[in-house]
Request: fold
Amino acid sequence: MVDYPFYTASATTRKAPKTAYSDDFSQMSDLLFINAPNYFPTTDPHKLEQETTFASNTYSAVEARIDSVVDPKTGKFIGDDYKNFILLPSADKVFIGKKFKWYDNYWIATNTNTYESLTNACVSRRCNTVLKWVDEYGNIKTEPCVVGYDLTKTIDYNASTTMLASGEIVVYCQRNPSTNKIKGNRRFLFGTPENMVAYKICAGGVKNYNNAQTLDPNSPSILEFKMESNFVNTETDDIANGIADAYANAYTISIDQSNISQNIGFTSTLTTKIYENGILAEGTTLWDTSDPLVCTVTSGGVINCLAIGSAVITATLSTNPTVTSSITVGVTSTPVAEYSIRINPNVLEILEGATETFTCNLYLNEVLQADTFTFSILGIVPLYAYTFTAISGNSFSIRNNKMSLNTLTIRCVSGSHSQDFAFELKGVF
Reply:
């Protein structure tokens, strides 16, 4: 037996009729919500899950009624690619662009019924594939999306003597901070690894102006892409994982210092280099230690040896946590003698017409030594392409007179220790 709220004739009216009716309806809806064959409780094996926070991609179960959707034009049921998710009136309000999980699929709300309505419902469309791309920092991004089944426009592509029938498609996904960075001309792969197809966003094919709130361009909503057929590139595309241009932005990071063996109380500053596709690039390094009781490291790369043992010091590219480099710091009572030769600045590319001056130093267990060097030139770079000048026992300069495809190698020797440094003589552009 379900009790219904009611008002006695003598009760003082404290609410407007609209508010009272809305509150009563919500209470009755909450009480009777489960009395339906299309009700899915949070304990159901096929429970509905909603995104807990917008764009978080984390989900929690929610009570819901789930109905089929009727095409308003034909009056016919559309099918399993569209569903009407009806939530409790007291539940979090749905909005366009909200994501759900149901029956091992992702769904995205494309139309809602919440404004000044006694219901809390949305028509959602099943995401039939996934957008995969690599952002400007080399991070792999994924986003469930809807790819229209029909070509919006047919096009014939000529490749040599072969003609391929292709066309344009429309793709929908949630408009969030990640997908908002997708620009025109970006390529995507769809399909299975055995039969991948490529599409590219048309130059003006990004429709990101469907605001859920008129004056708020950052309000949650749907992002629409118009894509045209493209070609799979086996040299730059990751076919196995379905990521176009996966190797276009490859980042690496390296710690300038090698493994360190030192005693308690030793301190030094570690430095790194960041490369994008093999070219020196800008970036911020995050530092971490595997054992702060043995060796600590600051945000600026300063290590401090505290106790006998070993610790792994890891440098991570701040914009991509998968790009790392590590060295081992061993703290002993009798450190192993480890020598290293370094040049400053540690720049191995010289532009045509430019002159760079370098200082060379020898380090013992990261401690600067007062050694001097002799320099010799290796490699097959033509003499007219560069000018080498030994300035002192620790310094030399190189002028790039003309770009060369071969590397200029300078050997720095101090006693029994030597190190080769290879310099690229680059063009102006």
